[in-house]
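Page 42, continued from yesterday. The earlier attempt failed because a stray header line got pasted into the input along with the sequence. Redoing it now with the clean sequence only.
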Amino acid sequence: MKKLKRSARLVEMTQYLLFRPHSLIPLTTFAERYNSAKSSISEDLAIIKEVFEEEGLGELNTLAGAAGGVKFSPKVPKETSLKFIQNLCLQLQQPERILPGGYLYMSDIMGQPQYLNEIGKTFASAFAGRDIDVIMTVETKGIPLAYATATYMNLPVVVVRRDSRVTEGSAVSINYVSGSNKRIQTMSLARRALKEESKVLIIDDFMHVGGTIHGMMDLLAEFKASVQGVGVFMESCEAEEHLVDQYVSLARLYGVDSKTKQITVEPGNYFDSKDSKKGDA
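This time it went through. Structure tokens are written below.
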């Protein structure tokens, strides 16, 4: 690569780091890429580190030694995420979102890249520092959230299916009881999709009682995998009891009244005070 002016180099280095979260990048990579001395690269990284931290973009950590380098960890301040979620809550309380049967329309939110990016960054911040190998979700609405989170955690995604598919080879299937309607349903996961004893983060869009998430936990037991955390975009507070004890929610749905056209949505337990136990997934 041709030698760049320092201003241009800083821009390019910043972009390089942003697109490679949680990846250890040796200083020699930058030195060779920009035909610059390591001392100059170190000075540039110090500037980028300061800006990342001041602007709440994340942390830039330096690892010393021959195998060292720098690693960017995206993190968004909780206050910033709260403002974003409060805005989403206002949108979700629009009366026209009420569907027949008292359901809440959220598909447009799940289809907006800018919303998904913010949700993904928030989940990545909520579970930062945990030892995780893979992110798991169940088809279909949880898939965009899982991939958004995976982008900022630099992790692969595993999708649990409602039924097995021939194109995915042999699979492990289990029956579980849906928490909302108490019906017995089936979910399956291809044997090749997940290594045994993997450390898994479960991400889903909505949790009513928690039957689907509890089913995923039972399915993970068949792979001898461990659950390192559970994140849901929205939890329902209408259920008397959840089947999942520890989870992080970004929003809470308190009720949908079809007669009065009233919807009550508030920020989830991630924004509760530190003594909240449900956020300690």
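Notes: The chain is about 35% helix and 25% strand.
Reminder to self: strip header lines before submitting.
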